[in-house]
Write a structure and sequence with these properties.
This protein is 0% helix and 57% strand. By secondary structure, the protein is an all-beta fold.
Length: 113
């Protein structure tokens, strides 16, 4: 299983094939991913541990364990962990291209814009 450590936590690729990829994403307490969009993929996030504050095209959504949200292609989005326990969510990507370079960062706490 491929795991990649990031400044906000880590992700592991659980499965992938043509047209989809499934990741397990962990966000450390008080951290957040970059505010970003994708040109070639949509995502579906299911919260499986902790709580998430999701920003989707400027609107904030607080998601509890068991809740989910859809991220359409091209939508600006970010997941943040407002708590101290690790946030864990499953991300299902769907699209014609699922490479990590399909990220357009709009804001980033770690200088990656």
């Amino acid at each position: 299983m491929e795991t990649d450590n990031r400044p906000w936590g880590s992700y592991s690729v659980l499965d992938e094939a043509a047209g989809f990829k499934v990741k397990r994403i962990e966000v450390l307490g008080g951290k957040r991913l970059s505010y970003q969009r994708h040109a070639s993929r949509a995502e579906h996030w299911v919260i499986v541990g902790g709580r998430a504050e999701v920003t989707l095209d400027g609107a904030r959504h607080l998601l509890e364990c068991g809740e989910s949200i859809d991220i359409p292609v091209g939508a600006a989005h970010r997941a943040a962990n407002p708590g101290t326990d690790t946030l864990v969510f499953i991300e299902v990507q769907r699209g014609g291209y699922l490479g990590e370079d399909d990220i357009i960062r709009l804001e980033d706490d770690y200088g990656r814009v």
